[in-house]
From TrEMBL:
Principal EC category: transferase
GO cellular component, one term: cell division site
Sorted UniProt keywords: Cell membrane, Cell shape, Cell wall biogenesis/degradation, Glycosyltransferase, Membrane, Peptidoglycan synthesis, Transferase, Transmembrane, Transmembrane helix
Reactions accelerated catalytically: [GlcNAc-(1->4)-Mur2Ac(oyl-L-Ala-gamma-D-Glu-L-Lys-D-Ala-D-Ala)](n)-di-trans,octa-cis-undecaprenyl diphosphate + beta-D-GlcNAc-(1->4)-Mur2Ac(oyl-L-Ala-gamma-D-Glu-L-Lys-D-Ala-D-Ala)-di-trans,octa-cis-undecaprenyl diphosphate = [GlcNAc-(1->4)-Mur2Ac(oyl-L-Ala-gamma-D-Glu-L-Lys-D-Ala-D-Ala)](n+1)-di-trans,octa-cis-undecaprenyl diphosphate + di-trans,octa-cis-undecaprenyl diphosphate + H(+)
Protein known as: Peptidoglycan glycosyltransferase RodA
Record flagged with keyword Transmembrane: yes
Chief localization: membrane
Subcellular location: Cell membrane; Membrane
Amino acid sequence: MFNLRMLKLSDLLLWIASGALIVISLFAIFSSSYSLLVKVHLDPFLYVKRQLISFLIGSVGLAIFAYLDYKRLKRLSIFFYLGMLTLLALITFGGGRGASAQRWLAVGGFSFQPSELAKIVIVICLAAFFSAKNKVETLTDAVALLALVGIPFLLIFKQPDLGTALVFIFILIGMLTISGSSSRLLILLTTPMISVMLRPFLFMWFFYLLLIVLALFLSRSSLWDWFLILGLNIGVGIAMPYIWDMLKTYQQQRILTFLNPGADPYGAGYHSLQSQIAIGSGGVFGKGFLHGSQTQLNFIPEQHSDFIFSAIGEEFGFIGTSLVLGLFALFIWRAMEIAKGASDYFGSLLAYGIAVMTAFHVFANVGMTLGLLPVVGMPLPFVSYGGSSLIMNMISIGILQSISMRRQKLIF
């Protein structure tokens, strides 16, 4: 049950952080799309208006999930999961195409990305799974957990949407760590990922395998651990050429460009290099609102979405980007504090999961715009243009506030 007095228990700093990010978003979206829209004789406020509509829809979602006792989400998790799989399957057979990927589902005149909503659904489902199991220790539990995440992961990877698929992996690893589950299972999940990154460099990969052998020997691991951990890492290394062939050409090019951005400065490396130029040219105080040369001359395509951080860096400089990162730090900190104060284990896992999801989004997006990570099409939460992403993040706020407002009983 919801009472207006419960609002006193909501987290004020969380409201401030998310609200400030949304306001910054509207200014950044307007600035990064203004010259392009004027050039093609469209309303310069077109994207801002669309984002405001998404904000209103997201506000309804926020209110619903704040009103709803978060404990009910545990019972509803199976229905959320089945609904998510249904929508992702529909995308595979009848979704709309955009930017070489099949990610959009149109309903009447409204289109959205089910993969964005799938992120918060997987957080809810993992929180329900871990709270029911308390700790994941057995191989049966591990297989069930991998199936829970693996099915939507494969459906999203097939779209293809590598960025969102990676979010699922990091949410899983983060929540697995927080839940205090078997360290052996965590090693099983993380070491193959390192093998994937090192496999292109054969000498480093062989050296890494030797380190695993040494660690298994010194820890006196069982024969079963030797078979699982070492076998899985070797298997991933052998399968890498086949996994590479499964990637789309543009995804392969993005990874190669990340390793050597200067190899194709006018092709696959163009976004990354222009983004770095924009952020670097902003200096300490920036060039001023609507005065960024890279931004206003549209050197970076679709800058109002995935590369909006570069527009903020160019026009508001180090001060502006520090403010944005500070607001994200505040948001993540408050989410973790809500997790610590939650009245039950499920609520704690739920809040921690949202904190992990948001932190990875910020890390991946900012790293991408700075050229420190490959370009994977990852939106900056609350800031990037995109209705589905904004609605998903506002639902996350509603869930966090629901946990915060129910951390203790009201005294009348």
